């Protein structure tokens, strides 16, 4: 009894220390972010010849902007050439209060009403407006709205990061039976945030059996803005853009009619959106570590997910990294310059350090993206999915008949296991499989042989019962163990 009390007291002291240190660290990062904002505005002006607005300010757009209702959704028409669905844009792009502001709001009674209801009206941030004006070429010669160059000065300029694809289609890795061999169906693999198709092609795909390959084509994509796919500087990397690019690059280009979906992390959101758009074609849906956070009543969904994914804590380290990436536009751009712009140097150093013994496919995916791509994808897909993913799950539950399987690592510190249990609560027929001792990455990497075998069983419409023992608790399938 005394030992348990001592452990509880120690844990409480640790949490208190973590909160205190985190407050100081993120207070300093807030100050650094202000300084970097000025630095990058000057640097962009000197190198690109134009002032580039950022999301630090709260400035709303002015100019020729028309908001109309189309099919129940708000659409912004600009210069009669570009249309943007407002619901595709997450307000976390430009609504990220500092540590001090958050603390003041938490202690204010009026802040509760502000959190319960977003401000009425329509706001289009000036950074979004300028990106779209550059996209349609308006004002390109007046010195005010010059298009964003691609790649930008702060991005890598190598051919691997900037493919010469005039059609602007995604890079797609395809493994198919010999030419002339008929296929029954296809499998589409979708990677997660700051990753690439290599996450699947270097792990699971080599272990898919010849029998499974003889009946299916295997597709693994590099998402828009990542890997060897195009990285347009004028894109807002919304859910709509990502899904439509997958449709154009895989489903339409390769004539895909019936397919299974396998997705990791952020890719799970895209997989759900694809399933909703192609309900009759989806044979099975496998989600690995899905980022699903049910939003409590009275909370602003996008901001709730932002706090859940990035709690502004220095420990664990993965939470600190996520917090820097989510909360600090200019600091995350600095990280991209250091790591992504010079990725070839880091990859060479890693190979030399390991005496060329370790494959670098995870590093390749982690480094091959731009700040604009990662920043907008992070906010518009993960944070912006609040509410949308609920509707997708309801459609999968009510209108699709495919099997739904969810994998999660018990040691995942980035996305807790409760995310997968929440999917199960939405889709009762879903099977949740929690693997002991695995985290956000090792749920796939390191157990690829087992996962490939299990995926084949899913594709063959067999129930995954052999070797698994499930314990039912509170209506959810809990952590399994090998029998």
TrEMBL record:
Domain of life: Eukaryota
GO MF terms, alphabetically ordered: hydrolase activity
Species the sequence originates in: Sorghum bicolor
The name this protein goes by in its record: AB hydrolase-1 domain-containing protein
One Gene Ontology biological process: cutin biosynthetic process
Domain AB hydrolase-1: 187-291
PANTHER family: HYDROLASE (PTHR43689), LYSOPHOSPHOLIPASE BODYGUARD 3-RELATED (PTHR43689:SF9)
InterPro entries: AB_hydrolase_1 (IPR000073), AB_hydrolase_fold (IPR029058)
